[in-house]
Amino acid sequence: MDLPEFACFSPFLPAEWGAAHGVRLRRLARLPATASRAAREGRCTYAANAVELARAFLAGGGAGAVFTTSCDQMRRSAELLAPAERVFLFNLPHTWETPLPHRLYRQELLRLSGFFCRAGGRAFSEEELVAAMRRFDEARRELLARQERLRAAAFARQLFAFHERADGSLPEAGLDEAGPARGPGIAVLGGPLLERDLWLFDLIEESGGRVLLNATDTGERTLPRCFDRGRLAADPLGELADAYFGHIPDVFRRPNSELFRYLRRELEARAVHGAVLVMPVWCDFWRAEAERLRAWLPCPLAAIDLADDANGRERARTRVQALLETIS
Ligand code: SF4
C-alpha cells in the first residue's frame, strides 16, 4: 500500500520523523509545469513557489502540507492553502540560547505526530524512530561522500532527490562524467533554491569557478549533524531534536551567530576564494545580512537577486564574471 505523503519546505522538519510514523515527509523542489513564473510584488519567490508546489501536491492526492513559522512569508504561505485541516503550521522558535525553545521544538514534533496520525500515519515507536534515524544518517553520509566526484548542480540535484524521496533511500549515483569543475573555489550562500535555479551553479562553473560549498538553505549547510549513537539509543527523540533544531544554522535564528561560525569554519576548511550570495527576491532576512557578510567574509562577495527571467540571469552572469575577474 502507498504511504501517505506530506509536502514540506523546511530543513527543520525531519523526514525521519515522518518515516517513524509510516508516512513520507517530502521536501519538494520541482515546480509543476503549470506553476506561474511571474514575480509577485512583495512576495518572496521561494515562499510563493512553495504555495504553488503544495497546492499541486494536495490536488494530486497528497495527505497534507507542513509549513513552518521560520519567516512571515512562509507563515502566510500556509494561510493561503486550503483546506486548512490538511495544512499544518509548525511553530519554529527563532531563539535557541535557552532550554525553552528546544523544549518547544520537541513539543511541536509531538503535535506534528498527531497530524500525521489523523491523516493516515501510525503512532510512532522508539524502535521505528531509531531504525529510521540510522537509515537516514547513513544515507546522508554516503550522499556527502559523493560530493567530491560531482559538479555542483549534479550534487544539488542529488540532495533535492534525497529530500523528495524522504524514505532514507539514495538516488542513483549518476556520477557526472565531466567530474568536478576546476578553477578558484567559490562558496554559494544564501536562501533556498528550487531545481530550476541550478543554472546558477552551471553559470559559476562555466565562468571559470569551482563551487566548493553549497551553503544555501537547500544545500549541505542545512543537513542535520550526524547522530550520536549513544544518545540515539538513550533518547532518540531528544537526539533528533538536537541534531536538527540544535545544530542547523540559519539566517532567521536569533541570534544567527551560528550561521557566521559555520561559514568561518567551512570557508577555512576548503580553500574558498570568493562567495556568491543568493537573495530570493523580497527576502528581508538575507537582504539584511548582505552588507554584514560583505564586511565579514575573508573573500570577495557577489550578491545576486535570484530572479527567474532573462534579465535576472544576465545580471547574475555579469556579477559572477566580475567576481572571478577580481579573484584572478
Ligand atoms: S528566502 Fe527569506 S522570505 Fe523566503 S522563505 Fe526563506 S527566509 Fe522566508
Can you walk me through this structure?
With 328 residues, this protein is α/β, with parallel strands linked by helices. It has two domains: 5-126, Rossmann fold; 152-327, Rossmann fold, CATH 3.40.50.11900. Helices cover 46% and strands 14% of the residues. It has helices at 15-19, 45-59, 72-79, 99-118, 126-146, 152-165, 199-206, 229-234, 236-244, 257-269, 284-296, 310-327; strands at 5-8, 24-27, 64-68, 87-90, 185-190, 210-216, 272-280, 301-306. The strands form two sheets. The protein has a four-stranded parallel β-sheet with strand order 2-1-3-4, with helices on both faces. Helix 1 links the parallel strand 1 (5-8) and strand 2 (24-27). The longest helix is centred in the middle third of the chain and has 21 residues, at 126-146. The N and C termini lie far apart (56 Å). The model has no long low-confidence stretch (mean pLDDT 94). The site of iron/sulfur cluster has 14 residues, from helix 2, helix 3 and helix 11.
Strand-and-helix sequence, N→C? EHEHEHEHHHEHEHHHEHEH
Strand order of the largest sheet: 2-1-3-4
Radius of gyration: 19 Å
Q: Strand portion, in percent?
A: 5-15%
Give the biggest beta sheet: 4 strands, parallel
The domain tally reads 2
Uncertain runs are none
Structural class: alpha/beta
DSSP helix count? 12
- Termini Cα gap: 56 Å
Q: Residue-averaged pLDDT, rounded?
A: 94
- Shape type: globular
CATH architecture heading of the largest domain: 3-Layer(aba) Sandwich
CATH class of the largest domain: Alpha Beta
User: Into which percent range does the helicity of residues fall?
Assistant: 40-55%
Give the strand tally: 8
The kinds of small molecule bound in this structure are: iron/sulfur cluster
CATH topology of the largest domain: Rossmann fold
